[in-house]
Design goal:
It is a single chain. The protein has 9 helices and 15 strands. By secondary structure, it is an alpha/beta fold. Strand 4 and strand 5 form a beta hairpin. Helix 1 packs across helix 9.
């Protein structure tokens, strides 16, 4: 056994990290010294999904690792730290797909909620996919609303799936997207994240439930994440209990760049720093007047621009059961 190893971080508990090597070996590791990631003031330097180099330490029968290098990330997701306002907490690194679960009612998923998540995914370079769940329960009215939302987001360029976890509808298309990828699931409490993931991977439920119970015992300020290998060559990151997932340190001039349909028209605006508000000859406002851009999207844009954080806070439970779900 060589002393130097490279592996993928599967679990973080704040001070210890479970790292899996390419050969499938699991090691419990600590951090060597203090890590400083350039440009990120975070409460946790290493996250689930990171590739790291570590050296082995033997103490009697126990072999542990000391992480000394973090490989460059292709992306990461962060949230504002609960107690340290100027710092952030890295939720996960190297995420391929962020699945946003949407329900039309029971509960209602607002477009503001969807758009805030989409903007965040765009900002961090993560592909987002909308999953319209519980389609088996739709009335004629809710079906019309769902199809309209799907039309809006597919026109922008986002992939949309129609799924029923209860009736196991649309699961093969979902599995195909997830194959060979690292995914996270997000959505309001009650949209069926746990149910959906447990249908995709029967047997994962027990692990997820144990993690959730652990996190309900006063662990409100720290998020312990874990990655799971699924039986169809996919990985999913479970991050139970994350709250306040929102826009972090985004300049007003940047926000429109993360609305793809706005960004496409940006060079047609009279001013290159146009905020698409009161400026004359704004291509985005003109497209809005022609109904070529959805008003719901423009409303979300203005809310983000105005920093309307309190009314649109997001709870993320990436596949983990929580107290609000059955």
């Amino acid at each position: 056994m060589t002393n130097q190893k490279t592996g993928l971080v599967y679990k973080s508990t704040g001070s210890w990290y479970t790292v899996r090597t390419a050969e499938g070996e699991l090691f419990e590791c600590r951090i060597k010294g203090k890590f400083r990631i350039k440009g990120i003031k975070s409460t946790n330097p290493i996250a689930v999904g990171d590739w790291v180099d570590f050296e082995l330490n033997e103490a009697g029968d126990e072999i542990t690792g000391l992480i000394h290098t973090i490989h460059e990330r292709k992306n990461y997701l962060i949230r504002k730290s609960v107690n340290l306002s100027k710092q952030v907490h890295i939720i996960a690194a190297n995420v391929d797909l962020l699945f946003i679960l949407v329900t039309i009612d029971n509960p209602i998923t607002t477009t503001s909620f969807i758009d805030r998540l989409l903007v965040t995914a765009e900002a961090y370079g993560i592909e987002a996919v909308l999953i319209f769940n519980k389609v088996d329960t739709f009335s004629e009215e809710t079906l019309d609303e769902q199809l309209y939302l799907q039309y809006v987001y597919e026109n922008i360029g986002y992939k949309c799936l129609r799924v029923s976890a209860e009736k196991e509808k649309g699961l093969e298309a979902l599995k195909e997207l997830m194959k060979d990828k690292v995914s996270m699931f997000t959505g309001h409490s009650g949209v069926g994240k746990s149910t959906l993931v447990n249908v995709l991977e029967p047997g994962l439920n027990l692990k997820t439930k144990q993690i959730s119970e652990q996190h309900q015992q006063g662990q409100h300020t720290t998020t312990f994440a874990e990655m799971y290998d699924l039986n169809f060559d996919a990985k999913i990151i479970d991050t139970p209990g994350i709250r306040g997932f929102g826009i972090v340190d985004m300049e007003p001039q940047e926000v429109g760049d993360y609305f793809p349909e706005f960004f496409e028209l940006k060079d047609q605006c009279k001013f290159n720093n146009c905020l698409h508000r009161e400026e004359p000859n704004c291509a985005v406002k003109d497209a809005l007047d022609r109904d070529e851009i959805a008003w719901s999207r423009y409303k979300s844009y203005i809310q983000i621009l105005d920093g309307d954080e309190e009314n649109y806070r997001t709870d993320i439970y990436a596949n983990g059961k929580n107290q609000d779900e059955e």
